[in-house]
Amino acid sequence: MRGERVYLVLGCGDVGFSVASRLKKRGVELVVVDKNIKKIELFKKMGYSAFVGDFCLLNVLKDAGISRAEVILLMVPDFRTTGRALGAINRLKAELKIDPVVVARVLDEAETVEVKRLGASDALPSSQILANFTLSRFEELKGMVKEKRLRALLRELSGGRIAIVLQTNPDPDGIASGVALKRYAKAFGIDADIIYDGSIGHQQNRALVNLLDLNLLRAEDIKFNNYTAFALVDVATHANCALPKDILPTIVIDHHPVPSSEVHARYQDITIVGSTSTLLTNYLRYAAVEIDGATAAALVIGTLTDTMNFTRGTTPTDFDAFEHLMKLADVELLGKLQSPAISPEALDVLARAIKGSKLNGGYLITNVGEVDDRDTLPQAADFLLKREGVQTVLVYGIWNNSVCASARTNDIAIHLGQALRQAFGEIGSAGGHARMAGAMIPLKAIKAKSKRVLKRAIDRQVGRKFFEVVGVTKPSKRRKTRPRSKR
Question: How far apart are CA 406 and CA 28, in angstroms?
């Protein structure tokens, strides 16, 4: 189809064929170009789109569809031919106002430096290509393409101001990703504000904001109509953020799986990796934007938090980005972020959680009563999960006219998000990941005749209900009242 974006593979020798075949298996739309007629005819018989001609010539590249190319792979071993081809590509980039990712095959490190100087985005050593055109390398190419698209959009928005909107009650991954996107936009001359709603209560979140001296703006204190563009980071829809429903986001960058029909933005990047921090790290890398030590430390914490120290949803892309960040991170700051001071209230709630805990077959529940900061609940849950003999924890208490619950587990046989939805979905909101989840139940949904019996009612409708759903105890049977006999 003439309108589809394509990968141009220039040169179809053994290496070019190896790369092209792997890309085709992954569903990439390809056009192969070579001046060897016999090779091109063979490619066509195998179902490839193939074009005969010297790809160092402008008219050949135009006819092959360079205007639709999002990636150009130069697979020839001869450096002089590569240099001539890069010269032609550079001229057409300026003439056609296109900016594809250009990757050139090289023989050694010296050639890598030179092809980048001549205009290549990246280089592929022959040894790596011949060994295997790996999946991680393919994912890297896709990331580079996305960065080019976002950069083009930001150039259109030049002169405006972006509202970077985080999820409600943002976590370290969301905060760090917002900081990174603001830095990315600034590199292209665009100012941005980071906006949130809810609270920043967890001590690690507060430490991140305080130690990096971040100026986060509360949604109720700003006017959204003062901004020319809107970016959702670590959240993809209006459902869990402060962006008014009548405003469509311009940019969405998130790592959570979301149906594409629910995401409405000019630029969308929903890539299933361990953290949004990974995605933003790579935007900065591919755009060659400097990552300072503080931002790198924040992105490290964001990655560790959302992947639970690489035990949840981690991909090779996360490991690669993390390795890059660790070379740049401020080590002293990173230590402070990993072990922030615990607030007196968090210690008090933890003490109540320990005192009131009930353990049954590896499942621990505890009612901590009223709390001023609901983020003390997940902190207590994280701590109690380390207790010997404990596999799953549910901590719950009263906050802001609701019963809030936070759950953690090391048991791979249970999906906490599904369990909490089953237990509390009908009387409140609940959900989360397999190993960590939460719930919020309006206090009015708790059937208690008076405040005196409220605690027992919460234990019955939250703690006992959780035990029933996970199969620790059998569902309780309501006593049937006998009709009075007539005298």
Answer: 43
